[in-house]
């Protein structure tokens, strides 16, 4: 079974491949079409130890394997990153599609390839005679052209992702509204997926969070300590915010911003559910969120933070011990990616936008403080070029060396970015799709999504 490599629109392909040899670019496009070889999850160490979480997850996975008639699947503790568990992903496996078809959209297809079952709301179309218990072949609608509820066989472009068992009939799926279906649970249980990996089910409630290794590393490299004042500039949905809170033992203050009101509302609920007291989330445009010097003075005279969830305008200058800038990006490192959906205009818009966020981050960071800049894209303009920009624009920022324990988990930055010195390039954390991100306890290569980050320290006033 093989997947066709990701095909970017031609103009996008030209831009992205510019920094690679043809062979490397082809390998990247192949890797982007399929899921990473490893499923990583982070343990919420405020709730349980990693060992407790591993045991619980192993029990859950054992139960699933029994149900699906799969051989035993081992949950490992990551040898280097202290709060990470991981499992291997198997595939591509040879699976013959059965006759009856179910169609899902590309987002749902991406999740299926990463081990998920299909929730009732995810099913776009099923053939007219589909009943609970039927074995169905699951296809992804590649062009977004399948009508929801369609009963005829879909004849558009589609990709097979495996066979599953329908858990409800066609009638239930399409006579109920999307609202009624929400919470109804699994619509199709994937028993013969092309890429096999146990799903995490409701392990989230038990403190196990699906999170890619590079995202977890971001938290460890930022390394916030209990009692510090930390800023997460683009925080929603909050995967990294909650990690920072765990690293700080929920002691200190994390100011979590997001521009979107709805996302902040969800983030506030998430923080409440997690019973975190250190995180305060606000709706704020982080490109223009810096107080003037006078306003900063006045704020610091009586520092009172606003009520969580409210819209705020600005934050005090040079006060934050750590700043995380995990901003909006072209997300071209996501795996699998059935259909990269981006225009040249949008791709070109990101680097400048990220630079405006970098300007704000620099103003808010205290001397001696640490800034981590991250993206989940392979686009050099949003990565190495922005690192070079930050170093050239802010002479008081220095790029931090990779701690010895994290060496070998990522690749260095790309070559050929003129303004990036060799030292700075070596200090970038680039996670190239298809390349290893370390080695597991059993010597197997680990692999994740495409990602990039760099850590900077702001020099103390007397050191520059
Ligand atoms: C990559 S996501 C952040 C993911 C998050 N850090 C996590 O780990 O869960 C980028 C976020 O930036 C937000 N965003 C975009 N522009 C922003 C701005 N000017 N100010 C604040 N947030 C912004 C988006 O709404 C989006 O939620």
From TrEMBL:
Residues 140-459 form the SAM-dependent MTase RsmB/NOP-type domain. PROSITE patterns: PUA, SAM_MT_RSMB_NOP. One of its GO terms (molecular function) is RNA methyltransferase activity. Keywords: Methyltransferase, RNA-binding, S-adenosyl-L-methionine, Transferase. It comes from the Eukaryota. One of its GO terms (biological process) is RNA methylation. S-adenosyl-L-methionine binds at residues 234-240, 258, 285, 326. SUPFAM superfamilies: PUA domain-like, S-adenosyl-L-methionine-dependent methyltransferases. InterPro entries: MeTrfase_RsmB-F_NOP2_cat, MeTrfase_RsmB-F_NOP2_dom, PUA, PUA-like_sf, PUA_sf, RCMT, SAM-dependent_MTases_sf. The keyword Transcription does not apply. The active site is at residue 376. Belongs to the class I-like SAM-binding methyltransferase superfamily. RsmB/NOP family. This is SAM-dependent MTase RsmB/NOP-type domain-containing protein.
């Amino acid at each position: 079974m093989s997947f066709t490599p990701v095909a970017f629109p031609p103009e996008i392909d030209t831009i992205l491949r510019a920094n690679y040899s043809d062979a490397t670019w082809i390998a990247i496009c192949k890797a982007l079409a399929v899921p990473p070889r490893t499923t990583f999850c982070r343990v919420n160490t405020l709730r349980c130890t990693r060992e407790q979480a591993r045991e619980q997850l192993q029990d859950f996975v054992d139960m699933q394997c029994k149900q699906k008639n799969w051989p035993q699947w081992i949950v490992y503790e990551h040898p280097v990153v202290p709060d990470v568990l991981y499992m291997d992903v198997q595939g591509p496996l040879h699976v013959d599609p059965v006759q009856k078809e179910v169609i899902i959209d590309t987002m749902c297809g991406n999740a299926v390839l990463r081990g998920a079952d299909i929730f009732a709301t995810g099913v776009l179309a099923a053939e007219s005679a589909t009943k609970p218990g039927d074995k169905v072949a699951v296809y992804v609608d590649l062009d977004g052209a399948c009508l929801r509820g369609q009963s005829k066989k879909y004849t558009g472009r589609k990709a097979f992702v495996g066979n599953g068992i329908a858990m409800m009939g066609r009638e239930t799926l399409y006579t109920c509204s999307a609202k009624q279906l929400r919470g109804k649970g699994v619509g199709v249980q994937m028993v013969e997926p092309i890429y096999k990996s146990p799903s995490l089910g409701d392990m989230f409630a038990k403190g196990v969070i699906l999170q890619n290794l590079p995202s977890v590393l971001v938290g460890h490299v930022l390394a916030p300590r209990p009692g510090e004042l930390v800023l997460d500039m683009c925080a929603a949905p909050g995967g990294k915010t909650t990690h920072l809170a765990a690293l700080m033992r929920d002691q200190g203050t994390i100011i979590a911003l997001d521009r979107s009101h709805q996302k902040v509302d969800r983030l506030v609920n998430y923080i409440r559910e997690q019973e975190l007291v250190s995180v305060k989330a606000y709706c704020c445009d982080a490109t223009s969120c810096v107080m003037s010097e006078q306003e900063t003075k006045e704020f610091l005279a009586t520092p009172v933070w606003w009520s969580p969830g409210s819209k705020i305008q600005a934050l005090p200058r040079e006060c934050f011990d750590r700043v995380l800038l995990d901003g909006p990006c072209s997300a071209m490192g996501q795996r699998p990616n059935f259909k990269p959906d981006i225009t040249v205009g949008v791709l070109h818009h990101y680097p400048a936008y990220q630079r405006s966020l970098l300007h704000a981050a620099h103003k808010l960071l205290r001397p001696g403080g640490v800034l981590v800049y991250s993206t989940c894209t392979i686009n050099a303009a949003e990565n190495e070029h922005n690192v070079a920009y930050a170093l050239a624009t802010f002479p008081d920022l220095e790029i931090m060396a990779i701690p010895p324990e994290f060496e070998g988990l990522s690749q260095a930055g790309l070559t050929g970015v003129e303004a990036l010195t060799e030292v700075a390039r070596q200090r970038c954390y680039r996670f190239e799709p298809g390349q290893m991100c370390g080695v597991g306890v059993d010597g197997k290569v680990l692999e994740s999504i495409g990602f990039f980050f760099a850590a900077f320290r702001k020099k103390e006033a007397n050191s520059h």
